[in-house]
Write a structure and sequence with these properties.
The protein is mainly α and about 130 residues long. It contains 8 helices and no strands.
Amino acid sequence: MSRRTRRRSGRGLGAGPLALVGAMAVSGVIHLVRPAVFERAVPRAMPGSARGWVLVSGVAELACAATTLWPPTRAVGGLASAALMAGVFPANVQMALDARRPRTRAITLLRLPLQIPLVLWGLQAARSTPR
């Protein structure tokens, strides 16, 4: 079966969406196991505690990964993943603004454009849903 046929039939996610699922699963676990790592990324304007937002985002990442991976929920999962990746962009900007070391600032700034393929992979996963 060709890649194009597999994509249309919904049987395969493709490398990009699979990378998104893997990254979201790993990141979700890290959010729950080591939330302090991410607390500084929560914009100060957000209501509530930074820890709460980190834990909620970790659960959301795991839920998005699972629903994107499972074919019956892939369309919703892919769209939710794309929305989440777009939604965490302000936190990534906050990390770049707060970076004190030049190397850390460079890394966080270079990471910002990487949100684009993550969003696109979520949308691609949503389109690969079986019909």
